[in-house]
Design goal:
Layout: H1 3-13, H2 20-43, H3 54-58, H4 64-80, E1 85-90, E2 93-98, H5 103-107, H6 120-132, E3 135-136, H7 137-144, H8 149-157, E4 161-166, E5 174-178, H9 180-185, H10 197-201, H11 208-241, H12 244-248
Antiparallel strand pairs: 1-2, 3-5, 4-5
């Protein structure tokens, strides 16, 4: 029996995504159990016990790379035959999925479930966390310039964000990270698959302390400008008060 067909059957039967290792172990354990059954039957004195065929016996030593090659072969086969489904790899593993072009037909099976869209502010908040995680709420607010309490809570409720411990900062603020559901929602396998992830992570974002310093500097500069304007206006007023005779004598 072809390895690719076994892999396909396992993916079809599983309700959860399967990793390459999960698939390899399932195949190995099946072969071992078959060998043990044959051995037990012989020891029990049963006659005409069928031997395990060589092709199946060889699968006991199947490796992760063999399974991955079978997955790639299946995906290529589905694409070549223009099937309505394919194999996709997500953060939790591999699974069979219908192509997006058939989404409207598949949604007809679940009329009560409507796709929930994220608002612009929620997407902005989620993007900041995705690229800079783990990150504190105050750091998110420093980037967005507004309070994000409601947005963070909404994303936590929808299981797109999770709490990942506390920062080693005064007050021990909570740290936030994205979840596996976030990866599945946006169709990516790992955070490294985010657009320009490496470049964006190298960009230094302003911290709450940076924002506070910038505001203080802006206030100081504004005060200096105000004082200078006051001096100029006073000087102008003094010149205007000068008698016309003296001015004409210059």
């Amino acid at each position: 029996m072809e390895l690719s067909r076994i892999v396909e059957a396992l993916l079809f039967a599983s309700q959860e995504p399967l990793t390459v290792t999960d698939i390899a172990r399932a195949i190995q354990s099946t072969v071992r159990e078959a060998k043990e059954e044959i051995k037990a039957a012989k020891e029990a004195g049963k006659e005409n016990v069928p031997e395990l065929d060589e092709e199946k016996a060889a699968l006991e030593s199947v490796k992760d790379e063999d399974v991955r090659a079978a997955l790639d072969a299946l995906a290529e086969h589905y694409e070549k035959d223009e099937r309505s489904f394919t194999i996709v790899e997500r953060s939790a593993g591999w699974r069979l999925c219908a192509l997006g072009t058939f989404g409207e037909w598949c949604r007809a099976l679940y009329p009560g479930k409507k796709p929930q869209r994220l608002s612009g502010p929620a997407l902005e908040t989620l993007a900041i966390v995705a690229y800079r995680q783990p990150i504190t709420k105050s750091a998110i607010e420093a980037v967005r310039g507004v309070s994000v309490d409601a947005m963070v809570q909404q994303l936590l409720d929808r299981n797109l964000l999770k709490i990942e411990g506390r920062a080693d900062l005064p007050g021990r603020p909570l740290l936030y990270c994205t979840t596996d559901l976030f990866l599945d929602h946006f169709g990516i396998r790992t955070l490294d698959d985010l657009p320009n992830a490496a470049e964006l992570r190298r960009v230094k974002l302003p911290t709450p302390e940076d924002v506070a310093v910038a505001n203080d500097n802006a206030g100081t500069e504004a005060g200096a400008v105000g004082e200078e304007e006051t001096k100029v206006s006073k000087g102008k007023a003094a010149a205007d008060d000068t008698p016309e005779l003296l001015l004409a004598g210059e």
